Amino acid sequence: MNTKAIMQKQEGLTSQQEITRLLNVAYNEGYIEIQQKYKVLTLWQPWATLLIIGAKKIETRPSFTSWTIEKGIYLVHVAQKWTSELDAISKQSPFKEKLKGHSLNLGCIIGSIEIIGCFPIFETHNGYFELIGSDTNISEIEIKFGDYREGRFAWITQNPRILQTPIPYKNGQGYYQNYKGDTKLLKFI
Fold first, then answer.
1. Same domain for 92 and 9
2. How many domains, the chain?
3. 142-170: burial string, b at 16+ Cβ within 10 Å, e else
4. Residue 148 near residue 172, CB atoms below 8 Å
5. Fewer beta carbons within 10 angstroms: which end of the chain, N or C?
6. Is the pLDDT assigned to residue 8 strictly greater than 50?
7. Is the pLDDT assigned to residue 51 strictly greater than 80?
8. Rounded Cα distance, 30 and 78, in Å
């Protein structure tokens, strides 16, 4: 019996478990890099910043998307657009309080979120909003940060992360399957 077989027998590991263990050790020691595939979601300010700082946990969208069925990590790209209306919104309560101390960058990637589900929005007879098929509660502040009209969809997010330095990036509106930038620049706080 060779040394590897003896070690596996002593540790009770299968070949696949041993490979996984060795890859984890190599990754943790910095010998290999695992390439993360990122999707990109383009949003206007101030909603982009609210998502990555964790003040907004639900992103409301006009339609369902099969991409959210895949779930996963999306880089948050901020559109270049800035208007006097968006400026006024960012200076109103509760936006102003939640955004205090945060820059409203434009035309760049500012962080990431993980999308864990997509649910249709339903308005109840007493004026409350529910997400069909989800046990997620929608807070009053969350309602102020989104468009909860019936017929729209809610993307539930978690694990917001802020980039150390925003990365200039050109992208169209919406969401895209593949980030085409250099992943080595993605350094999160």
1. no
2. 2
3. beebbebeeebbbbbbeebbbbeebbebe
4. no
5. N
6. no
7. yes
8. 31
- Domain identity same for 31 and 65: no
**Tens-place pLDDT, residues 84-140:** 999 999 999 999 999 999 999 999 999 999 998 889 999 888 888 889 888 888 999
In a domain, 183, yes or no: no
Q: How far is CA 19 from CA 16, 23, 37, in A?
A: 5, 6, 22
Distance CA 45, CA 98 (A): 13
Based on the fold, state whether residues 5 and 92 are members of the same structural domain. Answer: no
pTM of the complete model beyond 0.85? no
Query: Does residue 50 share a domain with residue 22?
Result: no
Which domain, by its residues, includes 171?
36-178
- 169-184 confidence digits (pLDDT tens): 987 777 777 888 888 8
Same domain, 64 and 96: yes
Domain match, 70 and 141 both? yes
